[in-house]
Structures are given as C-alpha cells and as structure tokens.
Amino acid sequence: MSEQNALRFSLSSHPVALGFFLGFRLAALLTYVFGLIFTNNFVLIFVIVVLLLAADFWNTKNVTGRLLVGLRWWNESSPNGDSVWVFESADPQRQINGTDSRFFWTVLYSTPVVWGLLAFLALINFELIWLSLVVIAVILSTTNAMAFTRCDRFGKASGIANSVFARSSRGLFQRFAGGMVSRVYGGFAN
Asked: How far is it, in rounded angstroms, from Cα 143 to Cα 60?
C-alpha cells in the first residue's frame, strides 16, 4: 500500500478533528463493554454512554464531517411545520485528504454495525435494559451515517446506502417517530 493510500492517523490534514471523531466513538463503545464487565450500575453507564453518544453525534454532524469530508447536514422546520432535511457539500473542487476520507467513511459505516451486533448480543442474553441503551446508539450512529451518505452528492459514499436512506426516510420508522413526536409535543400545545 502506498504512503498516500495508507490508513494512518499521521497523514490526516485534521488530526484533532479525527482524534475527537474516533475518541468519542471508541469511548462510548469501551464504556459500554467495560461497564458491562466491571459494574452492574446501569444508571451510571447509561448516563456516561448517552453523553458520549450525544457528543459524538454533534461533533460528527457539525465539525468532523465538515472538516474531514466537506459535508454537513441539519434538520429544520418549515413554516407549515414539516421537517426539512438540509444537506450541504463543499465545493467539488476542494481537495479532500484521502486518509481523512477513508477514516471518516470506514468508521461512520462500521459503528452502526458494531452497535447492531451489541444489540443482538443484548437480545440473545435477555439483557433488555441494556438493549435500550444500545438501541439509542444504533439510532444516533445510523442517522449520522444515512445523513452523510445523503449529502454526499459527488460519489464518495456508496450509492446503495443512498438508496437505502431514500427508502427508509419515507418508511415505517419515519412515520412512527414523527407520530410519537407529534403526540408528545402536540399534547403540550393544547
């Protein structure tokens, strides 16, 4: 493998952003795994992991994606109350560091898979209380993966993932989640 194609941290154009990107994800995973081994204090592990997941979600969405691959996304409400997803891509002429891009896409897509495997293990072991935490992790990491895939207009991400996002964004999950949010917040409006 050539020096230019190597997956080495030292070749990154933004090593601090890449460090936080990897750090938050690894810290959440390791806290969950070692929390299961060393303690049964669900509340402590739940709070720490959710805080790490939230920090990772925000950092990936607002900082890391923009710096490493030139992509950003957000969700806003239209005047008529509909949810509108906004996707932003950097100028296609901008040079993206290959190491940054490979780290970003590899970790972005592998994290939901790892959390999915942990969800499967929690389900098999009938650890349903821990499953709730893993489901939160799966949802947050998958949302970031799908949104970044969607805002990648210039082909850095897989076209298959893009079509999966398009189907799922109109699917059952969106109707269910949208219905739940409108019921929760609709009850406060009355």
From this structure: 11
